[in-house]
């Protein structure tokens, strides 16, 4: 019953809190290995979470894992979503000009901390799933509950940007959405975060 009320019972990434305010935190995350898929939601009838099934197939949540070993991999949280649609920032950022990427979504599963290098993770059988390493990184993070609708996420991102800029933080990339609970969790008990990379 606890899962319906949003209790998080799986591995979450470790981080160090650099700064904490009433509205947001600056966090430093260690390097991590991730399984990711980048796709156009049109492939999944407009579903921005369409890559979720590809990733759960890879780790073997609902059946035989679709990887080279085959090895079941423990689910972790949060699920990270990055949109190819850019939200304008006042600080210069590097963007890709390829129009095909404007509507893409990248979804990531952070693999358990036992995997420290890409080559340690089983190879995905579906070529759309790729294993990547992300180095140590720092984010401004704003936590919020409820359903992470597109409208709410954009409001939170804009608010976080303003707070970071007000406090002299240098924004160096696009936002990420981190969701900690399955879709069936009651909205008041959901945990979400918007994260913006900073120097």
What's this model, at a glance?
The protein has 199 residues and is of the alpha+beta class. It has helices at 52-59, 150-166, and strands at 16-20, 25-29, 32-39, 79-83, 105-110, 130-134, 137-145, 176-179, 191-197. The protein has one domain (2-197): Multidrug-efflux Transporter 1 Regulator Bmrr, Chain A, CATH 3.20.80.
Q: Would you identify the CATH architecture?
A: Alpha-Beta Barrel
CATH class equals: Alpha Beta
Overall morphology: globular
**Main sheet makeup:** 9 strands, antiparallel
| Helix-residue proportion | 10-25%
Give the overall average pLDDT. Answer: 86
Q: And the CATH topology?
A: Multidrug-efflux Transporter 1 Regulator Bmrr, Chain A
Low-confidence stretches: 85-101
Strand content of the residues, in percent? 25-35%
Rg, Cα atoms, Å: 17 Å
Count, helices: 2
Biggest β-sheet: strands ordered side by side in the sheet: 1-2-7-9-8-4-5-3-6
Q: From the helix content, strand content and strand pairing, which structural class follows? A: alpha+beta
Number of domains: 1
SSE succession: EEEHEEEEHEE
List keywords for this structure.
199 residues, Multidrug-efflux Transporter 1 Regulator Bmrr, Chain A, 9-stranded antiparallel beta sheet, globular
């Amino acid at each position: 019953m606890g899962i319906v009320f949003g209790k998080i019972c799986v591995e979450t990434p470790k981080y160090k809190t650099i700064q904490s305010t009433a509205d947001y935190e600056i966090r430093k995350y260690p390097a991590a290995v991730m399984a990711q898929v980048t796709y156009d939601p049109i492939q999944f009838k407009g579903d921005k979470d369409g890559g979720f099934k590809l990733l759960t197939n890879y780790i073997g949540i609902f059946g035989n894992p679709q990887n080279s070993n085959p090895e079941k991999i423990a689910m972790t949280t949060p699920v990270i979503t990055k949109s190819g649609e850019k939200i304008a920032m006042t600080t210069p950022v590097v963007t890709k000009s390829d129009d095909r990427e404007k509507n893409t979504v990248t979804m990531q599963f952070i693999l358990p901390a036992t995997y420290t290098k890409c080559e340690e993770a089983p190879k995905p059988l579906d070529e759309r799933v790729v294993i990547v390493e992300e180095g140590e990184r720092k984010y401004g993070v704003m936590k919020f509950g409820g359903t992470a609708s597109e409208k709410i996420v954009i409001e939170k991102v804009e608010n976080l940007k303003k707070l970071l800029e007000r406090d002299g933080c240098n924004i160096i990339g696009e936002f990420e959405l981190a969701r900690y609970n399955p879709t069936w969790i009651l909205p008041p008990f959901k945990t979400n975060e918007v994260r913006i990379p900073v120097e």
